[in-house]
């Protein structure tokens, strides 16, 4: 009889222990679950704050802004505008609109102009905007500096790929880095140049980022 009396007591004790253990193993719950644990909301706030701070610092670095110094209103605005632009670029709806944007992007001179373009709705609307602003004929958009370089058969850092092609002709080899729509590539030109021993082949390699010259080398 003593054994039968002790069994319910032992079972109750075991069930209680298991209950406490299972509670300790439960994961943190959402605040609306009714089982909200202190620290859940704070940890998420910290996560998003850290993420925003990282994005802010990376964008400032991209723009060449030193965040160790007190920022001006113009600098803060530039960082916020660039962050918004990057978000819109990631949200481009279709592949054809993405290709359209990155083709015209080098001719949009500021982040605000790029945001204005991305906020237009639909491929056809953007195409009409491009036509109205004469961005469908890149050769008409060469700057005075580019036109001067073309007349001299020269190139310079910041020159568009279309202007380089007009100045030096089509490259013998084109090599693309990553997705072609981002226009990160290099062009390899070859030409015959006179030397004391006769003619030799000169190789010129031009490097582009976003369709603009960032440097070149001659061998």
Keyword list:
single chain, about 220 residues, alpha+beta, Beta-lactamase Inhibitory Protein, Chain:B, domain 1, four-stranded antiparallel sheet, 8 helices, 4 strands, about 50% helix, globular, disordered N terminus
Characterise this structure:
- This protein has eight helices and four strands.
- The chain is α+β, with helices and mostly antiparallel strands.
- Strands 1-2-3-4 form a four-stranded antiparallel sheet, with helices on one face.
- The protein is globular, with a radius of gyration of 31 Å.
Compile the SSE list and pairings:
Blueprint: H1 2-25, H2 40-62, H3 73-90, H4 95-104, H5 111-118, H6 123-132, H7 144-152, H8 161-168, E1 173-176, E2 185-195, E3 198-209, E4 212-218
Antiparallel strand pairs: 1-2, 2-3, 3-4
Helix pairs in contact: 2-3, 3-5, 4-6, 7-8
């Amino acid at each position: 009889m003593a054994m039968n009396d002790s069994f319910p007591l032992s079972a109750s004790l075991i069930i209680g222990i298991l209950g406490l253990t299972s509670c300790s193993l439960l994961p943190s719950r959402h605040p609306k679950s009714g089982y909200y644990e202190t620290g859940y909301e704070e940890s998420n706030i910290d996560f998003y704050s850290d993420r925003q701070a990282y994005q802010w610092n990376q964008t400032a670095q991209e723009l060449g802004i030193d965040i160790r110094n007190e920022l001006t209103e113009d600098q803060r605005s530039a960082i916020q505008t660039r962050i918004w632009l990057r978000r819109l670029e990631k949200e481009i709806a279709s592949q054809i609109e993405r290709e359209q944007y990155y083709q015209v992007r080098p001719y949009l001179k500021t982040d605000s102009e790029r945001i204005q373009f991305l906020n237009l709705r639909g491929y056809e609307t953007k195409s009409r905007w491009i036509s109205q602003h004469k961005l469908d004929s890149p050769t008409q958009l060469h700057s005075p500096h580019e036109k001067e370089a073309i007349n001299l058969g020269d190139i310079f850092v910041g020159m568009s790929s279309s202007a380089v092609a007009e100045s030096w002709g089509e490259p013998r080899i084109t090599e693309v880095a990553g997705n072609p729509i981002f226009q990160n590539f290099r062009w390899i030109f070859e030409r015959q140049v006179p030397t004391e021993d006769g003619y030799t082949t000169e190789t010129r390699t031009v490097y582009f980022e976003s369709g603009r010259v960032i440097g070149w080398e001659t061998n």
